[in-house]
């Protein structure tokens, strides 16, 4: 009888131990499973897969986030047009149709009027100035706050120059007169004010337009963009200084999608995108200098730098464009005044 009781007691102990062990396994195992949950986002870009920026921005950011979250957040990347047109990227992120996007905010200037300040003619001359204006003086914060009203987070990707390549040399301010220049947006107003004629054409048609004489000059970014479209085959002149040095492309993240992630993953995403701006801007400056050297040495491209006097004439015209942008929105006016004060501080504006 005693032996039977002992067996029963032992049986209860064993069963209790097994039950508690199972309970602990389910409980802690469930937490482990939850912690290792994999989330997949889709990111639509407005640029082609053949663009250097696709690899150096879109793919790079996705890979860093995957690595730093130990594979818990995977971002599927899509080039221009793969899911939807470029102009639908921001609305799609806003609605939650896709979690992430990459494009220039200028597509949505009616919703984001500050986007007009991102790339102004003849504003900055050095990459550090762009970085300081955006990150230290707070312009990116202003633009981010405007984007946030739509339930979307915004991060700028990199500083980028705009420089024209031409079939015929433009050596002076007066040489712009009558020249047809492929351009877009407010740069069109700028070139028209210089006496040139602004012409519109999509990226894939720039090479043909130059080769056939539809226009005599064009810009697709600066040296990096010109080389990517093989423009130096038909244009042997590259003009400096930059028509513009600012930011164009940036990242958009659906706020609810980000907040649904564990806090440590949210921190990784924000950290990677903050880091990307500094890394990519520095890299872009290096690639520009590298390509300029290569096309001069191997393709006979001549770099033409306008005289200080002509640059002052262009800068004076540029300010009239800035003032038009300032009238678009009170926040624009605030940003333009911040820009002017910055240029006064560094001695480039009276």
What this model shows, in words?
The protein is α/β, with parallel strands linked by helices and 350 residues long. It has helices at residues 2-35, 52-68, 89-95, 127-136, 139-148, 185-194, 206-211, 223-228, 255-259, 263-299, 308-326, 330-345, and strands at 39-45, 73-78, 100-103, 152-156, 159-162, 165-166, 180-182, 197-199, 217-218, 237-240, 244-247, 250-254, 302-305. The protein contains twelve helices and 13 strands. It is 51% helix and 15% strand. It folds into two domains: 38-114 and 126-158 and 248-286, 3-Layer(aba) Sandwich (D-Maltodextrin-Binding Protein, domain 2), CATH 3.40.190; 162-246 and 298-345, 3-Layer(aba) Sandwich (D-Maltodextrin-Binding Protein, domain 2), CATH 3.40.190.170.
Question: Top keywords for this entry?
Answer:
2 domains; globular; 12 helices; alpha/beta; disordered N terminus; D-Maltodextrin-Binding Protein, domain 2; single chain; six-stranded mixed beta sheet; five-stranded mixed beta sheet; 350 residues
Overall morphology: globular
Oligomer: single chain
Mean pLDDT: 91
| CATH secondary-structure class of the largest domain | Alpha Beta
- As laid out across the biggest beta sheet, the strand order is 8-7-9-6-10-13
Specify the biggest β-sheet. 6 strands, mixed
Q: Summarize the amount of helix as a percent range.
A: 40-55%
DSSP helix count? 12
* Total separate domains: 2
Structural class estimated from helices and strands? alpha/beta
Classify the beta-strand content into a percent band: 15-25%
In whole angstroms, the N-to-C terminal distance is: 106 Å
Number of strands: 13
Which architecture of the largest domain per CATH? 3-Layer(aba) Sandwich
Integer-rounded radius of gyration:
27 Å
Instruction: Give start-end ranges of low-pLDDT stretches.
Output: 1-33
Run of helices and strands: HEHEHEHHEEEEHEHEHEEEHHEHH
CATH fold assignment of the largest domain: D-Maltodextrin-Binding Protein, domain 2
């Amino acid at each position: 009888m005693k032996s039977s009781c002992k067996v029963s007691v032992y049986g209860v102990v064993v069963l209790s131990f097994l039950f508690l062990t199972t309970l602990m396994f389910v409980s802690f195992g469930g937490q482990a499973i939850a912690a290792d949950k994999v989330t997949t986002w889709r990111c639509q870009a407005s640029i082609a897969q053949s663009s250097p920026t696709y690899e150096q921005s879109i793919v790079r950011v996705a890979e860093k986030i995957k690595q730093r979250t130990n594979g818990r957040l995977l971002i599927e990347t899509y080039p221009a047009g793969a899911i939807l047109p470029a102009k639908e990227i921001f609305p799609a992120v806003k609605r939650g149709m896709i979690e992430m996007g990459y494009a220039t905010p200028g597509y949505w200037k009616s919703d984001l009027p500050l986007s007009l300040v991102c790339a102004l003619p003849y504003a900055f001359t050095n990459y550090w100035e762009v970085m300081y204006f955006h990150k230290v003086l707070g312009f990116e914060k202003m633009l981010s706050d405007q984007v946030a009203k739509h339930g979307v987070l915004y991060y700028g990707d990199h500083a980028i120059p705009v420089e024209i390549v031409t079939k015929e040399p433009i050596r002076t301010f007066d040489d712009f007169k009558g020249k047809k220049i492929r351009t877009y947006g407010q740069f069109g107003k700028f070139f028209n004010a210089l006496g040139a004629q602004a012409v519109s054409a999509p990226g894939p048609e720039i090479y043909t337009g130059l080769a056939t004489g539809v226009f005599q000059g064009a810009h697709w970014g600066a040296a990096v963009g010109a080389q990517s479209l093989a423009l130096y085959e038909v244009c042997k002149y590259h003009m400096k200084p930059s028509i513009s040095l600012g930011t164009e492309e940036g990242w958009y993240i659906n706020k609810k999608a980000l907040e649904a992630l564990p806090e440590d993953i949210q921190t990784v995403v924000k950290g990677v995108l903050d880091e990307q701006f500094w890394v990519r801007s520095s890299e872009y400056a290096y690639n520009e200098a590298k390509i300029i050297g290569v096309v001069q040495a191997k393709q006979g491209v001549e770099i033409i730098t306008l005289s200080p006097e002509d640059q002052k004439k262009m800068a004076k015209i540029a300010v009239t464009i800035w003032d038009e942008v300032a009238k678009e929105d009170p926040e624009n006016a605030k940003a333009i005044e911040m820009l002017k004060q910055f240029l006064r501080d560094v001695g480039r504006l009276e």
